[in-house]
Specification:
Radius of gyration: 65 Å
Structural class: alpha+beta
Number of domains: 3
Strand content: 25-35%
Distance between the termini: 207 Å
Helix content: 10-25%
Largest sheet: 5 strands, mixed
């Protein structure tokens, strides 16, 4: 039996018992047990299962596969550097290629996409090679994978509330700003996160003039008028989770502005510096026995309550307080009729032939207040005395205004006060006036005293001349009475 027929026999019946034709003897070959032939690529021989392939080769589905060649379970790849693929059946790919579910892709220029090779620049989406991934997908290693499409959603929105203020008043301007963004995930999903906000406040006046907080605490300036309050609000594009290329959540900044009207504190008004110095006569001077009349200036209480007053007010004038002063001082001017015989008709008791000429001489050439002898009676005329004293008062009032008014206006106590928001004595008209009262009050008293000094300096000449015509009339009546009585003539009578 030749080897070929033997191979057929062994493949058909395995290692079976053979009956020798000559010796009729059963010979058992040393193969596998009956019914278990040698494996693929083996032959059953007298000595056992013999390897059919060359040394180093492998058996590939019953065929010998040369050393180094790859077997993919059904096929022996023809080249030693071929790649065996088993991802979709069994197949071979050339060296350097990648298996792609039945296709072989060149990794240098292609990517695998469900059995197709996508060319450079293409990406695999849902098993199809596409030039561009759908919206909210991005190409990662050749595959379209979901990503978050971020967008600005809506613009930054909101408003500010600007407060009006009094001079130097602290106010808080508020804001209500928001910036909701949006993302959409490829395949499914939405989100609406909010960005952080930055704030940039500015004020055209006041302090501070800038702020970076959501609400702006601000002190109004010391000047009335409009102040522009502005806010620039911008978003801080917070981190984007898994963003698609080109996504952004950066909005444009918005600007908001308003006007804060700065006005005067309650009960304060505008005005300029002024002084008014006055006097009023209460007609109750002290009357020393030697005087027929008296003009009296009572200081310091003469311009203090209850008889007089000094009123200091502060008026707003171009970011300063201007002071207005009104003073009313008490004077006492009157005749002292209890100290003399009031001569009206010229025939009053006490006028005699021996003294009438002296009385007439004094009335015409003196001060109109004449005493006859030591401890004797004093003669005068109340109306004429009042004219005399009124002249003293006239001097006083004429000196007060304009001279002492002008003097007071240029004193440092009357200088305008600059409004300083850091000094509470200057922030309201009431506080300013109260702070300045001591110095202004002292200067007002000085002005009244200056007027009194002026009256003293003028002396009695003017008052005597003012009353001369009045006393001359009374002297004429005395002369007439003397003549009617046949008294000795007087050189001072006509």
């Amino acid at each position: 039996m030749d080897k070929t027929s033997y191979r057929v026999l062994t493949l058909t019946v395995g290692c079976m018992l053979l009956l020798s034709t000559t010796a009729q003897q059963v010979i058992a070959w040393p193969c596998r047990p009956p019914g278990e032939p040698c494996g693929d690529c083996y032959t059953c021989t007298e000595t056992g299962c013999e390897w059919d392939c060359t040394t180093g080769a492998t058996c590939c589905n019953g065929s010998c596969c040369n050393s180094g060649n790859c077997c993919n379970s059904t096929t022996c790849c023809s080249n030693s550097d071929d790649v065996c693929c088993t991802d979709s059946g069994s197949y071979c790919c050339p060296s350097g290629y990648t298996c792609c579910e039945g296709s072989c892709c060149d990794p240098a220029t292609e990517t695998c996409c469900a059995g197709s090779c996508c060319s450079a620049g293409q990406c695999c989406h849902a098993g199809v090679c596409v030039d561009t991934c759908p919206n909210c997908y991005e190409c990662v290693d050749g595959d379209c994978v979901p990503c978050k499409c971020w967008d600005v959603g809506g613009p930054i929105s909101g408003s500010i509330s600007v407060q009006d203020a009094k001079l130097c008043e602290e106010k808080t301007h508020t804001s209500s700003i928001s910036d909701p963004d949006h993302w959409f995930l490829g395949g499914d999903g939405h989100g609406y996160p909010s960005d952080s906000i930055t704030y940039s406040w500015t004020a055209s006046d006041g302090t501070p003039v800038t702020s970076t907080t959501a609400n702006f605490t601000w002190t109004a300036p010391p000047c009335t008028g409009p102040v522009t309050i502005s806010l620039t609000a911008n978003d801080v594009p917070d981190a984007m989770d898994n963003p698609c290329p080109g996504s952004t959540r950066d909005d444009s900044a918005i600007n908001r502005s308003g006007t804060s009207t700065v006005s005067l504190p309650t009960d304060c008004v505008t005005g300029t510096k002024s002084v008014s110095l006055n006097s009023h006569d209460e007609g109750a001077p002290s009357c020393p026995s030697s005087k027929c009349g008296n003009t009296q200036f009572n200081y310091p209480w003469g311009i203090s309550s209850p008889h007089g007053s000094v009123r200091v007010t502060a008026k707003y004038n171009e970011c300063k307080w201007a002071f207005q002063v009104t003073a009313d001082g008490r004077t006492d001017t009157s005749a002292c009729p209890s100290n003399y015989i009031n001569v009206v008709q010229g025939s009053e008791s006490g006028i005699t032939e021996t003294n009438y000429c002296s009385i007439v001489n004094n009335f015409k050439n003196g001060d109109g207040c004449v005493q006859i002898g030591t401890g004797g009676p004093r003669f005068s005329n109340t109306l004429c005395v009042e004219i005399h004293e009124a002249k003293h008062l006239e001097y006083f009032n004429d000196e007060l205004d304009p001279n002492q008014v002008n003097w007071l206006l240029v004193q440092s106590s009357m200088d305008d006060m600059t409004i300083d928001c850091g000094n509470s004595d200057t922030t309201t008209c009431g506080a300013a006036a109260l702070a300045r009262v001591p110095s202004i009050g002292a200067d007002v008293l000085m002005a009244y005293n200056n007027a009194v000094d002026y009256v003293d300096a003028k002396g009695e000449t003017g008052p005597i001349l003012a009353a001369k015509s009045c006393f001359t009339i009374i002297a004429g009546k005395i002369c007439a009475h003397a003549a009617s009585q046949g008294w000795t003539s007087c050189t001072h009578c006509p």
